[in-house]
Every structure is written in C-alpha cells, then in structure tokens.
Task: structure prediction
Amino acid sequence: PPFESRLEERDAVGFETAVAYALKGLGEGGIPIGSALVHHQANGEAWVVGAGHNERVQRGSCVMHAEIVALEAAGRLPPHRYRNMTIYTTLSPCSMCCGAILLYKIPRVVIGENTTFKGDEELLRSRGVEVVVLDDIACKEAMSKYIEANREEWYEDIGK
Amino acid sequence: PPFESRLEERDAVGFETAVAYALKGLGEGGIPIGSALVHHQANGEAWVVGAGHNERVQRGSCVMHAEIVALEAAGRLPPHRYRNMTIYTTLSPCSMCCGAILLYKIPRVVIGENTTFKGDEELLRSRGVEVVVLDDIACKEAMSKYIEANREEWYEDIGK
Ligand SMILES: [Ca+2]
Ligand SMILES: [Ca+2]
Ligand SMILES: [Zn+2]
Ligand SMILES: [Zn+2]
Result:
C-alpha cells in the first residue's frame, strides 16, 4: 500500500510512538494528535527523547499541543543536540509547533497526515526544514472520529 | 524621553505587568522575559487575562517562554476571544511564540525591545499582525545583566 512505502525504516520507531500517543489521547477523550522527538545517533540507532499527545482536554491546556509536549518531555538540552533529531507528529503542525521546530532548528519533520489540517509546512520548507508527509490512514481516521463528536474542541485547538 | 512617548495609555497595564513578571523572573535567577495577555473590552477597559515569565531555569522548561506561559495562564478560551486581545512581551518573540500568536490570531503585539534579540516580527507583520516596539531601556538592562552572567542559559533559550 502506498503509505507504507513512504515510511522509511529509520522513521518507524518515531512514527509508531507518535501514533501510539495519539491513540492514548483518544482513549482519554482527548484530541488524538501524538508526537515523538527522536535523536538519530551516528551508529544509526534512533532514541525517543520525548513524546506525548495533545493535552487540551486532559489538562485544559491551550499550548500543550503534542509537539510542544514532546519537546518539553525531552527537557532542557544543549541546542546542538536538536540538529540530529527528527520530530514525528500524526498531524501537520500548526504555526506554534512549526515555530518551535524553527526555534530549535530541528532539521526534519515527519507528518502522519495533512488532510484534516494543514499547518505551516511551507514556512518550514522555506527555511530549510525537510518535511515528509506520510498520508497515513489511521491518523486520518482517528481525527475524523474525534472531530465528528467534538467539533468545538477541535476548532478551539486550531484557533478557528 | 522617547520611549515613554511610544507607550500608549491603553498599553500601560499590559506592558507594566509584563515588565513586573520579567523582574520577578530575574529575582528568581531566571531569564528576565515577561509577558501579559490583555483583553481590551468595548468600554475601553483592559483586563489582564494571563501573565508570566520565562520558566527555563525555574521549571527546567524548554517551551515555557513568557508568552506561552501567559497564554497558558489565560486557560482554554473560545477562539474569538483572542481577537480583542493584545499580547505584551518584554523581548521580541521567538519563532515559537510568534507561531502561537498566529495560531490564536492575536491581532496586536507590543514588544519591550528587540535589540537583545529580534524574533519573527516580520513574519507577524506579513500576516497582518500589528507589531509595536517600545525600545524600552529597563527591558534591555534586565537582559544585559542576565546574559552577562548566564550566557549559556540564554543561548539555550534561543536555540543558539
Ligand atoms: Ca497507519
Ligand atoms: Ca521602562
Ligand atoms: Zn501545534
Ligand atoms: Zn519564545
């Protein structure tokens, strides 16, 4: 199937972690967007240094988008550490999360899907960030299911 | 003095609150950047709905910039509420904080100074946000004092 061919092996751990957090969030009644921050080491190993899901519903937060939670979970890091990282997110990142990616100069973003919502991907590309969109069906289905039942929470999350 | 003439009366409460938080942060050994989110009502009253300071040092956070803390302190809000708000910050907002301003379509940003650091002000302007820079001496002095003694923490905060 087309989507599987887009997922490179080096991205499997990060993307699957992001999806797992999205589904955990959905199970909690939250907006099903997950993210993982992964450090790719010289020997090829991929380490998940931070992960999480959107916390609008669970923690009543307007800033704890999945990508922000993943960055926060990784803690304070020397800036050069981010240069060997990829951030995975199940949904195209909003302006705030794209801005966080630019702040820390994370060079690569892997996105589950951008059909439900398309964030500032072009801004990322224009500033040299590699952006990969997987067009993943499971990510889309989780969002469709959530939005159908919780349209107001979803609009609130994207400032609409 | 020139800077005082730039501060409009409607901005006094918000800007003074942002400065007070910056100085509170400095007193705690933190990066002295403060922010306040203010709702301007139809009758001319200005209500501070959220405020805070950078929490990198105090909470070990890489995402809790002053503007993000101010937004979080305001809590979950219906998106239209942000349309009558101004966000005040003692220092020019970084990419992440500019992205948060764009996410919630906050129409106006008042900045203490952009000499120490200049964030994505042009991106904000290009998307229709009104950006006012006060060139405030106290804001600059607090940052100079902090950075002189804590250069590494400061570079970490801007991903440098
Ligand atoms: Ca899938
Ligand atoms: Ca002053
Ligand atoms: Zn976001
Ligand atoms: Zn910032």
